[in-house]
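Read as amino acids, tokens; as here:

___
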Amino acid sequence: MPVLDEAATIASTLTALAPLRARGAEIIVVDGGSRDGTPLLCQALADQVLDGPRGRARQMNHGAAAARADTLLFLHADTRLPTGADTLVETALAAGAPWGRFDVQIDGRSRWLPVVAWMMNMRSRLTGIATGDQALFMRRDAFDRVGGFPDQLLMEDVEISRRLRALGRPACLRPCVVTSGRRWDERGAWRTIVLMWRLRWAYWRGARADDLARLYR
């Protein structure tokens, strides 16, 4: 789990993972330079709390390098897994999928968020491309074969999906992760929808991810 200044919610996020941890899942938090005490709040609720280079892709690669398991799941700090997520992942990978993701539900104020989530899930199912909000999971050998997350500031989820897709189609699990709609609430739902589609179109056309990251901010 990559984190940066998540003190307001990180304790509840990690507490929700306690049942998985009790069943043997290793919870690794990688901090990218928080100034609000986030790492301290994680200490009792995670197996490892690491300082990493800032940037979600770099933080996730740093955490993967420290993990001991043969299965990796990358979870955003504002996203909750469904009940029994560990069993769902194990079953999907045992059935032959090298990687996968969950459907997503977005928790926020805008009445358009269920539509946004439906579009994300349908697009992912049709294209085999997942977003980080969907809690990507994969076998470690698949992660290693594609070189982990690319060292870029944005679209790291899209790019690793492209590379993983060459190894096989993702397992698209219908139980939903619930992710925060804070960026849609803060920026406005339609403004955020249009921005994300512009960014994805530009990336597909060959724009540099680091240039798009500046536009995103």
Notes: The chain has eleven helices and eight strands. Residues 2-180 form a domain with the Spore Coat Polysaccharide Biosynthesis Protein SpsA; Chain A fold (CATH 3.90.550.10). The first strand starts at residue 2 and ends at 3.
